[in-house]
Design a protein that fits this description.
By secondary structure, this protein is of the alpha+beta class. It has a domain of 123 residues. It has 3 helices and 11 strands; from the N terminus they run αβββββββββββαα. The strands form 3 sheets. Strands 2, 6, 7, 8, 10 and 11 form a 6-stranded mixed sheet that branches. Strands 1-3-9 form a 3-stranded antiparallel sheet, with no helix packed on it.
Length: 199
C-alpha cells in the first residue's frame, strides 16, 4: 500500500513537471504581432544578431490557471515555403527563452503571402525526438517591406509601395488595418535602405 501511494506521488510530481514545460497558447504572447491582424516582418534587420529584435515571444505554461514562464523553451517562426524568397543569413527566426520565459527574435525575411497558415510560431522542447513543439500562434498572412524578395528594402520596394499607397493591397498594409496609409509608410521607412546577405 505504501508503495502504491509513493508511486502515485511520484507520478503526480512528474505530471506537474511535464505540465510546467508545455506551453499554453492562451497564456503566451507574440509581440508586436498580437496587436496586428497579420504577421509582419521588418524585412531586413537593421544590424546583425538580435540587437534590434523585432519580435518578442513570451512562453508560459498554465499551472492552476496561473501563467508560469517556461525558461529554456525553444521558439521557432516557420514560414510556408512558397511565402519566402529571402531569409537573411543573420536572421534570428529561432531561439530559446530566458529565465522569464521570453525570447527576442529578429525576423529578417522578405516576401508577402496570404492564404492559410502562412506563418506559425511554435514553442516547446527541442531536446526530444521528435521535438515536442506546440503551435502558439498561426497567421494566415505575412508581409514584409522587402516585397520584391531580394534581401534589401530598396528603391524597387519603395516604388511598389508608392504604387500601392492609398489602396488596400495586403502586401503593403503593414499594420493590418485594411488600407495602405501613413502608418504603413512609417513602418516601411524603418527598414528602407537595409540589406542583408541571404542565407
Amino acid at each position: 500500500m505504501k508503495m502504491a501511494i509513493l508511486a502515485l506521488a511520484v507520478l503526480a510530481l512528474f505530471a506537474g513537471d511535464v505540465q510546467a514545460s508545455v506551453p499554453d497558447p492562451g497564456m503566451c504572447s507574440v509581440q508586436p504581432w498580437d496587436g496586428f491582424s497579420v504577421s509582419i516582418g521588418r524585412g531586413i534587420p537593421k544590424t546583425g544578431g538580435n540587437a534590434n529584435a523585432d519580435l518578442t515571444v513570451t512562453v508560459n505554461a498554465n499551472i492552476g490557471g496561473i501563467p508560469t514562464p517556461i525558461p529554456g523553451a525553444y521558439v521557432v517562426v516557420e514560414y510556408r515555403e512558397d511565402c519566402l524568397k529571402c531569409v537573411c543569413a543573420d536572421a534570428g527566426i529561432s531561439g530559446y527563452t530566458n529565465a522569464s520565459g521570453v525570447a527576442d527574435l529578429n525576423v529578417g525575411v522578405g516576401g508577402c503571402c496570404t492564404g492559410g497558415a502562412s506563418v506559425v510560431v511554435k514553442a516547446g522542447d527541442d531536446t526530444v525526438i521528435p521535438p515536442a513543439l506546440t503551435i502558439i500562434r498561426a497567421y494566415d498572412s505575412f508581409c514584409s517591406p522587402d516585397s520584391d524578395k531580394n534581401c534589401g528594402v530598396t528603391l524597387g520596394d519603395f516604388t511598389a509601395f508608392g504604387a500601392g499607397f492609398g489602396g488596400t493591397n495586403y502586401c503593403f498594409d503593414y499594420n493590418g488595418d485594411g488600407s495602405v496609409g501613413l502608418g504603413d509608410f512609417t513602418y516601411f521607412g524603418q527598414s528602407f535602405g537595409n540589406t542583408c546577405v541571404p542565407s
